[in-house]
Specification:
107 residues, alpha+beta, Alpha-Beta Plaits, 4-stranded antiparallel beta sheet, 3 helices, ABM_dom, ABM domain-containing protein, Dimeric_a/b-barrel
């Protein structure tokens, strides 16, 4: 079962925070996509609110996170990003539903 994290970030109102967060997220995605058992590491920016960002981290399983956390880059991410945020990151953990089979939806 694919294990997925979604992380919502909201930039503070400092003039360069949006550009700095955007650059750090792109850099992080390019690095983290290479981690063992990482299926994908997606970053996105809200189309209506440029201060709002989302990260979607997809791993082969929950244990796969260890490779992400062992990546030396991980220690640089929060110290750079947290001061640029208006509020704490909102991290949520998910197991993706299996959509490969037909289901019967109850009436």
């Amino acid at each position: 079962m694919v294990y997925t994290l979604t992380v919502h970030l909201y930039a503070n109102d400092h003039p360069d925070s949006i550009d700095r967060i955007k650059a750090k997220l792109v850099e992080a995605a390019r690095i983290y996509r290479q981690d063992k058992e990482t299926i994908d590491w997606l970053v996105m920016q809200d189309v209506h609110d440029p201060r709002a960002f989302t990260i979607v981290e997809r791993f082969a399983n929950e244990g796969s996170q260890k490779y992400h956390l062992e990546n030396p880059y991980w220690k640089t991410f929060d110290p750079y990003v947290v001061p640029l945020l208006d509020r704490p990151m909102d991290l949520r953990r998910h197991e993706e539903l299996d959509t490969s089979k037909d289901v019967e939806v109850p009436a």
